[in-house]
Amino acid sequence: MRVLAILGVVLLVACTHGFFTFIWTREDLLWGKGRGSAVTRAVEESRRMVDEAIYHTMERDLGERESPPSPSRLLSFSKLPEPTSRAISRAAEIMEVSVQAVVRRSQLPTDVLPEDVLDTIANLSGCLPYMLPPRCPNTCLANKYRLITGACNNRDHPRWGASNTALARWLPPAYEDGVSEARGWNPHVLYNGFPLPPVREVTRQVIRVSNEAVTEDDHYSDLLTTWGQYIGHDIAFTPQSTSKAAFAGGADCQLTCENQNPCFPIQLPTNGSETTGRSCLPFYRSSAACGTGIQGTLFGNLTAAHPRQQMNGLTSFLDASTVYGSSPAAEQRLRNWTSAEGLLRVNTRHRDAGRAYLPFARPPGPTGCAPEPGTRGTAQAPCFLAGDGRASEVPALTAVHTLWLREHNRLAKALKALNAHWSADTAYQEARKVVGALHQIITMRDYIPKVLGPEAFQQHVGPYEGYDPTVDPTVSNVFSTAAFRFGHTTVHPLVRRLDARFEEHPALPPLRLQDAFFSPWRLLREGGLDPLVRGLLSRRAKLQVQGQLMNEELTERLFVLGSSSTLDLASINLQRGRDHGLPGYNAWRRFCGLPALETRAHLLAATANASVAARMMDLYGHPDNIDVWLGGLVEPFLPQARTGPLFACLIGRQMKALRDGDRFWWESSGVFTEAQRHQLATHSLSRVICDNTGLQSVPPDAFRAGRFPRDFESCKNIPGLNLEAWREVLPQGDACGLRGGLDDGHWALCGESGQRALVFSCRHGFQLHGPEQVACPPGDGRFRPPVCRDVNECADVAQPPCHPSARCRNTKGSFRCECTDPYVLGEDGTTCADSGRLPKASWVSMALGALLVGGLAGVTWTAVCRWTRAGRKSSLSTAGTGGGGASRPGGAKCPEMGAAQPGTSTQGTQQVTAWRPSEVLDLLASGVWSSPQSSFIITLIFHPT
C-alpha cells in the first residue's frame, strides 16, 4: 500500500512538473510578455506564404495569356472576385493560415486559442474591419435608396444581406474535423460505415447523359432556364481562393492531386475509363469568410467553435446587382459619369442596329474570353463588363444582361425628361430602383411559382404581409451551393438563333454549347441580340428527367474552347457541396419536415425509379451519405412544378426570406407610391424585350413556350409603365438645388417631415468634407456646399491596396499598382508577375556595353596601326601606294600612311586616315570583330559620314 502511495505521489509530481514546464515553454504564445511579438511574427510569415501563393498564381496565369485559355482557367476567371471581395478573401486566408500556425507552434492539447490572440490575428491579418458592423448613413436618402453594398437594409442588423459577408447556415456544417476540412478530405474517414464515392464516379453512373438524350419541356421556354441562372447570379457569388497554389509547400493546384488547402482536386477513376491522361481534375476551395474556420476561445465558451463559412461576394437581395454591382468600386466602373441623365456605360466600339451593347472590361481587368477566329496577335480577348463578372459565360446570359443595361438607360432618360430638376444621381437612383423592383416582380410573380408549383408556393412562400425586421434575408449556403443549382440540369446542349419568322436562321445554325462559352464576339458578329432572344422565347427548355440529368456539353466539354483538357460541372457542384461542409440528403429532409430515408426501399419510394435508387445506394451505401444536390435532383416533380419536395422547401424558404426581410421590397410601405406600385404590377419581361430589341411580337408570358405566330402578341398590346406616376411637382417658388453640381460627387433632393433637404455623397475614391445633409438653403446664395477630396488609398498601411510585389501610386479617385520591368500586372490588377522577358534596361545596358567595347577596340587598333607605321617609316619607301603594312591578326592589314588617297585628307605634313564602312566591314569579315553590333558601332565611330 505504501509503495502505491509513493508511486502516486511521484506520478503527481511528474505530471505537475510536466504541465508547468509545458506552460512555461509556451508562454510566448499564451501568457508570456513575448506573446504579442510571437503572434505578429506568425501573421507576417502567414502573409508572406499567402502572398507567395498569389504571386505564383498570377505568374502562371500570365504565362497562359498567349495560349487559348484552359477550362480550369476559364472557371477560375468566372469565379474571380472583384477587388473588394478579393481583398477580404486574402485577409481571410491570412487569418486562417495564421491561426493554424499559432496552434501548431503552441502545441495546445485542444485546438483553442485565447480570445485576445484571435483578436490580434484578426487585426494584423486585415480581417477585423470586415468583421465589424458597417457605418450606416443617417440621411433622408437612407430610407429612399438601398446602399450598393446591401448593408444597413436592416437597421438593427446592418450586415444582414450585405455583400462580402458569410452565407447563412440553416444547419451546422458537417466538416470532417468539425471546423474546416471538407467532406471527403480524408479518404479513410467512413460515413455510416462507407467512404464517400468520388464525385466523378457519381457523375458517370447517375448524372451524365448524351447530348442527344434530351426531353423538351412541354410548357416552358428556354428563357425560364436562363432567368434562373441570371437571378442566381443576382443573389449569390462565392469566390474561390485567391490563390491557385497550396499555402504550405506551394504545390500548383493545376498539377497536384493531393488535398492541400486550397487545392481539393476531383479524383478520377483508376480503372482506365478516363482519357485525360491525369488522375484528377483541378478544383479550388471557396474563400472563407473572415473570422471563421477556428475553434472557440480558451477562456470563453469551449463549445463555441467558429467553423469555416463561405463568403457571398454579392448582396443577398433581389436588387439587380447583376446590373449595378455590389460594391462602390464596381458601381464606379459601370456608371457613365459624363452623363447628366444617370446612364450606365455602354460599348463605344460596337452597336446593335443602333442599340447598345455591354462595355468591354478595361485593363488591367480580365481578358479571359475567346477572340474572334482569325484575330492576330492574341489568344484571348476582353469580356463584357456588367454588375456580375459571369455575364460572358454563355450567350443567353449575355443577352439578358444586355436587355437590362438598355432598360436602365431607357428609364433614366425618360425619368430625367419628366423631371428636369433632378440631378444625374437622382435619375440614376430612381431608374435603379425601378429596375430592381422589376427583377423582384418577374422573379416572385412569374418565375418562382412555375418552379415550386402553386401548392408548394403557397406553403413555403405565401402572400406578402409586409417587411419583417426579424427575418434574416442572407442567402443560405444550401440554397446557393445546392438547391438553386437544379437549373444546371435544364440547360440545353445547343444554342439556337432564329430569324424574324422564328425559324432556323440560314446564316446562324444551331451552336454547340462548347463553342459558345466566353465568346462575346458571337453576339457582336453573329446577328446581335435579336436572334438569341427569339431562340430563348420559342425553343422549349430541356426537362429535368431522372435518367437525363445533365448532358455531355456540361459534364465532358465544359469551357473547352478548343482546349484538350476538360471540366465537369456536375462533379464541380458535388465537390463544392463537400467543400462547404453541407450535411447530407437526409439531414435536409428532416430540416424540411420530410421523412428521412433509412433503407434502399425508402430511397426507391422517394425517387420512384428503381434504376436510379439502386445506383445511388451502390455508390453511397446509406441514404444519409447522399450529397444533397443529387438527392434533391432525383426527386419526382411536385404537381405543376419543376422541382421535388426538398428543393421546393429550400428554394421557397429562401425566397420568402429575401422578400420579407428586405426593407426595400417593392410592395413594402413607403418604397413606392400606390400609383407607382400599380404601374409596376403591369410590367413584364415581355415588355422589357419589346422596349429593348427589334422584336415586334412576343409571348404575353415570356417563360411560356409558344409557337409563332399563334401564341405571340404584338408589342403594341403588351402593357408597360406609365412613367407619369414618377413625375415630381416642385413646390411653387422652390429654389432648392445645387447650381454647378458637386465635383467628384452627387447631390440629391429628398423630403423629410415636410422639409426638403439636399443630401451629398462622393464618388468612390473620394471623401466628403462638410455636411452630409442640409435643409434646403435660403435663396440668398450664401450656402457653401461640401467638397469631395481624393482618398490616398496608398497611405493605408493596414490594408495596402496592392500586393507586396507591386508599387502603389495614388491617382485621382483611385490608385494604380505599378511594376518594375520586366514584371507586369497580373489579372487581379494588384499583383506583379514575371513576364519572362529581359528587362528593357538590360537591352540598353547591352547596347551601351557593345558601344563601349567596340569604341575601345577601335581606338586600340588605330593606335597599334599608327605605332607600327611609325616604326617602319624610315625603312619603307613612300613612293608605293599599295605597299603592304604589317600583318594584322586574322590577315587584316593596317592602311598605309602614304600620299593622299580617297578616304584620306592631308593637313600640313600629317595625313589623317578616315576608314570607310567597307574597309571596316572587310576587317570584321576577317574575324577580328565578329559581332554585328561591333560592325555598326565601329562604322559610326570611324566614318560618321
Helix content: 25-40%
CATH topology of the domain at 135-241 and 306-581 and 642-728: Myeloperoxidase, subunit C
Rounded to an integer in angstroms, the radius of gyration calculated over CA atoms is: 35 Å
Please give the count of helices: 27
Which segments are poorly predicted (pLDDT under 50) over 5 or more consecutive residues? 9-33, 297-303, 874-892, 896-915, 927-945
What is the C-level CATH assignment of the domain at 135-241 and 306-581 and 642-728?
Mainly Alpha
Shape: globular
Q: Based on DSSP secondary structure assignment, what is the total number of beta strands? A: 23
| Ends apart, CA distance between termini | 114 Å
Structural class per helix/strand content? mainly alpha
Looking at CATH, the homologous superfamily of the domain at 135-241 and 306-581 and 642-728 is Haem peroxidase domain superfamily, animal type
The major β-sheet equals: 3 strands, antiparallel
Overall mean pLDDT stands at 82
Strand-residue fraction?
A: 5-15%
Tell me which CATH architecture of the domain at 135-241 and 306-581 and 642-728 applies here.
Orthogonal Bundle
Q: How do the strands line up in the largest sheet?
A: 13-14-16
